[in-house]
Amino acid sequence: MKIFYTGKTVNKLYPLFLLFFLFIVLLLLSSCMTATPYLSSKEPALQHAEMNGIAVDCLYMNYKDIEKKHGYKANPFLPPDLGLTPKQMIVFDLTITNKEAAPIKLDSRVIELYFGDKRYPPMSAVDMERKIDEYAEKGDNLKEGRVAKAHMLPNITTIRGNSTTSGYLVFMGTFRGKDVPAELALSFKTADEGNAGDITFNYTLTLIKK
Protein backbone atom coordinates (compact mmCIF):
# COMPACT_ATOMS: atom_id res chain seq x y z
CA MET A 1 0.00 0.00 0.00
CA LYS A 2 1.44 3.35 -0.99
CA ILE A 3 1.24 6.28 1.38
CA PHE A 4 0.97 9.72 -0.12
CA TYR A 5 1.93 12.84 1.87
CA THR A 6 0.02 15.93 0.93
CA GLY A 7 1.10 19.46 1.74
CA LYS A 8 -1.41 19.58 4.59
CA THR A 9 -0.05 16.35 6.05
CA VAL A 10 3.49 17.66 5.94
CA ASN A 11 2.41 20.88 7.63
CA LYS A 12 0.78 18.86 10.41
CA LEU A 13 3.82 16.64 10.88
CA TYR A 14 6.35 19.49 10.86
CA PRO A 15 5.66 20.63 14.47
CA LEU A 16 6.07 17.02 15.61
CA PHE A 17 9.41 16.71 13.82
CA LEU A 18 10.50 20.02 15.34
CA LEU A 19 9.55 18.94 18.86
CA PHE A 20 11.37 15.64 18.37
CA PHE A 21 14.48 17.46 17.15
CA LEU A 22 14.43 19.84 20.14
CA PHE A 23 14.00 16.90 22.50
CA ILE A 24 17.09 15.18 21.04
CA VAL A 25 19.14 18.41 21.35
CA LEU A 26 18.11 18.91 24.99
CA LEU A 27 18.90 15.27 25.74
CA LEU A 28 22.39 15.64 24.28
CA LEU A 29 23.03 18.85 26.22
CA SER A 30 21.85 17.23 29.42
CA SER A 31 24.15 14.29 28.77
CA CYS A 32 27.13 16.62 28.26
CA MET A 33 26.41 18.49 31.48
CA THR A 34 26.02 15.26 33.44
CA ALA A 35 29.29 13.97 32.04
CA THR A 36 31.23 17.03 33.14
CA PRO A 37 34.13 15.87 35.35
CA TYR A 38 34.33 17.41 38.81
CA LEU A 39 36.76 17.35 41.73
CA SER A 40 35.61 15.76 44.97
CA SER A 41 37.30 16.00 48.37
CA LYS A 42 37.63 13.23 50.94
CA GLU A 43 38.06 15.73 53.76
CA PRO A 44 35.28 17.98 55.11
CA ALA A 45 34.81 20.93 52.77
CA LEU A 46 35.09 23.45 55.64
CA GLN A 47 38.34 23.56 57.62
CA HIS A 48 39.46 25.97 60.36
CA ALA A 49 42.95 26.99 61.48
CA GLU A 50 44.45 29.66 63.77
CA MET A 51 47.93 31.05 64.31
CA ASN A 52 49.25 34.21 65.99
CA GLY A 53 45.79 35.73 66.30
CA ILE A 54 44.88 34.95 62.69
CA ALA A 55 41.83 32.70 62.23
CA VAL A 56 40.95 31.31 58.80
CA ASP A 57 37.93 29.32 57.68
CA CYS A 58 38.68 27.61 54.35
CA LEU A 59 35.71 26.24 52.40
CA TYR A 60 36.46 24.02 49.40
CA MET A 61 33.71 24.61 46.85
CA ASN A 62 32.98 21.82 44.40
CA TYR A 63 31.10 22.48 41.17
CA LYS A 64 27.71 21.76 42.73
CA ASP A 65 28.37 24.36 45.45
CA ILE A 66 29.50 26.89 42.85
CA GLU A 67 26.48 26.29 40.60
CA LYS A 68 24.12 26.53 43.58
CA LYS A 69 25.56 29.91 44.56
CA HIS A 70 26.23 31.49 41.17
CA GLY A 71 24.12 29.50 38.70
CA TYR A 72 25.28 27.56 35.68
CA LYS A 73 25.16 30.25 33.01
CA ALA A 74 27.63 33.16 33.10
CA ASN A 75 29.56 31.60 35.98
CA PRO A 76 33.29 32.47 35.84
CA PHE A 77 34.19 29.86 38.46
CA LEU A 78 33.20 26.85 36.34
CA PRO A 79 35.73 25.21 34.00
CA PRO A 80 35.69 26.26 30.34
CA ASP A 81 33.77 24.49 27.59
CA LEU A 82 31.53 22.44 29.88
CA GLY A 83 34.52 20.41 31.02
CA LEU A 84 35.39 19.25 27.50
CA THR A 85 38.90 20.74 27.83
CA PRO A 86 41.51 19.19 30.16
CA LYS A 87 41.34 22.27 32.40
CA GLN A 88 39.62 22.17 35.77
CA MET A 89 39.09 24.82 38.44
CA ILE A 90 39.58 24.72 42.20
CA VAL A 91 37.86 27.35 44.34
CA PHE A 92 38.41 28.08 48.04
CA ASP A 93 36.17 30.51 49.91
CA LEU A 94 38.31 32.08 52.67
CA THR A 95 37.02 33.92 55.72
CA ILE A 96 39.94 35.61 57.50
CA THR A 97 39.68 37.12 60.99
CA ASN A 98 42.44 39.26 62.47
CA LYS A 99 42.12 39.05 66.25
CA GLU A 100 45.01 41.41 66.91
CA ALA A 101 45.05 45.23 66.82
CA ALA A 102 47.71 45.58 64.12
CA PRO A 103 46.70 45.08 60.47
CA ILE A 104 47.96 42.12 58.45
CA LYS A 105 48.23 41.45 54.72
CA LEU A 106 47.69 38.46 52.48
CA ASP A 107 49.48 38.68 49.13
CA SER A 108 47.87 36.26 46.69
CA ARG A 109 50.93 36.47 44.46
CA VAL A 110 52.90 34.35 46.95
CA ILE A 111 50.05 31.92 47.72
CA GLU A 112 50.56 28.43 46.33
CA LEU A 113 48.42 25.37 45.80
CA TYR A 114 50.37 22.13 45.80
CA PHE A 115 48.46 19.54 43.78
CA GLY A 116 50.47 16.35 43.93
CA ASP A 117 54.01 17.28 42.88
CA LYS A 118 52.98 20.45 41.01
CA ARG A 119 52.54 24.02 42.26
CA TYR A 120 49.90 26.44 41.06
CA PRO A 121 49.50 30.16 41.80
CA PRO A 122 45.99 31.53 42.22
CA MET A 123 44.37 33.27 39.28
CA SER A 124 44.78 37.04 39.30
CA ALA A 125 42.17 39.48 38.05
CA VAL A 126 44.04 39.60 34.74
CA ASP A 127 44.11 35.79 34.50
CA MET A 128 40.36 35.65 35.12
CA GLU A 129 39.73 38.38 32.56
CA ARG A 130 41.62 36.37 29.95
CA LYS A 131 39.69 33.21 30.84
CA ILE A 132 36.38 35.06 30.48
CA ASP A 133 37.37 36.64 27.17
CA GLU A 134 38.39 33.26 25.78
CA TYR A 135 35.62 31.01 27.04
CA ALA A 136 32.55 33.05 28.04
CA GLU A 137 29.49 32.78 25.83
CA LYS A 138 28.67 35.79 23.73
CA GLY A 139 27.07 38.51 25.84
CA ASP A 140 28.13 37.02 29.19
CA ASN A 141 31.55 38.70 29.46
CA LEU A 142 30.40 41.68 31.48
CA LYS A 143 28.30 39.64 33.90
CA GLU A 144 31.06 37.09 34.48
CA GLY A 145 33.52 39.93 35.03
CA ARG A 146 31.28 41.52 37.67
CA VAL A 147 30.78 38.20 39.48
CA ALA A 148 34.51 37.49 39.50
CA LYS A 149 35.39 40.97 40.75
CA ALA A 150 32.77 40.80 43.52
CA HIS A 151 34.01 37.50 44.96
CA MET A 152 37.71 37.02 44.22
CA LEU A 153 40.31 38.23 46.70
CA PRO A 154 42.48 41.02 45.27
CA ASN A 155 46.24 40.66 44.78
CA ILE A 156 46.81 42.16 48.22
CA THR A 157 44.18 41.83 50.94
CA THR A 158 44.59 43.99 54.04
CA ILE A 159 42.77 42.79 57.16
CA ARG A 160 42.49 45.58 59.67
CA GLY A 161 42.86 44.92 63.39
CA ASN A 162 39.92 43.11 65.00
CA SER A 163 38.11 42.68 61.69
CA THR A 164 37.08 39.99 59.21
CA THR A 165 37.22 39.78 55.42
CA SER A 166 36.35 37.07 52.93
CA GLY A 167 36.77 36.14 49.28
CA TYR A 168 37.68 33.43 46.80
CA LEU A 169 41.01 31.98 45.80
CA VAL A 170 40.63 30.47 42.34
CA PHE A 171 43.01 28.07 40.60
CA MET A 172 42.86 26.68 37.06
CA GLY A 173 44.95 23.85 35.71
CA THR A 174 45.05 20.26 34.47
CA PHE A 175 44.00 18.74 37.78
CA ARG A 176 43.85 14.98 37.26
CA GLY A 177 44.12 11.83 39.35
CA LYS A 178 42.59 9.92 42.25
CA ASP A 179 43.19 10.76 45.90
CA VAL A 180 45.70 13.48 45.03
CA PRO A 181 47.03 15.39 48.08
CA ALA A 182 46.36 19.11 47.75
CA GLU A 183 47.85 21.70 50.12
CA LEU A 184 46.88 25.37 50.19
CA ALA A 185 49.70 27.45 51.70
CA LEU A 186 48.88 30.94 53.01
CA SER A 187 51.54 33.38 54.18
CA PHE A 188 50.44 36.47 56.12
CA LYS A 189 52.58 39.58 56.47
CA THR A 190 52.64 42.50 58.86
CA ALA A 191 52.36 46.08 57.61
CA ASP A 192 56.17 46.33 57.46
CA GLU A 193 56.45 43.03 55.49
CA GLY A 194 57.38 40.91 58.50
CA ASN A 195 56.08 37.38 58.88
CA ALA A 196 52.73 37.37 60.68
CA GLY A 197 52.03 33.65 60.34
CA ASP A 198 51.80 30.75 57.91
CA ILE A 199 48.65 28.62 57.65
CA THR A 200 48.09 25.55 55.49
CA PHE A 201 45.02 23.51 54.60
CA ASN A 202 45.12 19.95 53.29
CA TYR A 203 42.61 18.18 51.09
CA THR A 204 42.57 14.91 49.15
CA LEU A 205 41.01 15.51 45.73
CA THR A 206 39.78 13.05 43.12
CA LEU A 207 38.57 13.87 39.63
CA ILE A 208 35.21 12.18 39.20
CA LYS A 209 34.13 11.35 35.66
CA LYS A 210 30.41 10.62 35.51
Question: What does this protein look like?
Answer:
Strands 1, 5, 6, 7, 8, 10 and 11 form a seven-stranded antiparallel sheet that branches. Strands 2-3-4-9 form a four-stranded antiparallel sheet. It has 210 residues and is α+β, with helices and mostly antiparallel strands. The chain starts with 6 loop residues before the first helix and ends with a strand. 28% of the residues lie in helices and 38% in strands.
Low-confidence stretches: 25-34
Intertermini distance: 48 Å
**What's the alpha carbon Rg, rounded to whole Å?**
23 Å
Describe the largest sheet: 7 strands, antiparallel
Give helix % range: 25-40%
Structural class: alpha+beta
- What does the average pLDDT come to? 86
The helix count comes to: 4
Give a brief description:
The chain is an alpha+beta fold and 210 residues long. The chain has helices at 7-34, 63-70, 125-135, 141-151, and strands at 38-41, 46-51, 54-61, 88-98, 104-107, 112-115, 118-120, 156-159, 163-173, 180-190, 195-208.
Task: Describe the secondary structure blueprint for this structure.
Elements (H helix, E strand, L loop, with lengths): L6 H28 L3 E4 L4 E6 L2 E8 L1 H8 L17 E11 L5 E4 L4 E4 L2 E3 L4 H11 L5 H11 L4 E4 L3 E11 L6 E11 L4 E14 L2
Antiparallel strand pairs: 1-11, 2-3, 3-4, 4-9, 5-8, 5-10, 6-7, 6-10, 10-11
Helix pairs in contact: 3-4
Features:
210 residues; alpha+beta; 7-stranded antiparallel beta sheet; 4-stranded antiparallel beta sheet; 4 helices; 11 strands; 28% helix
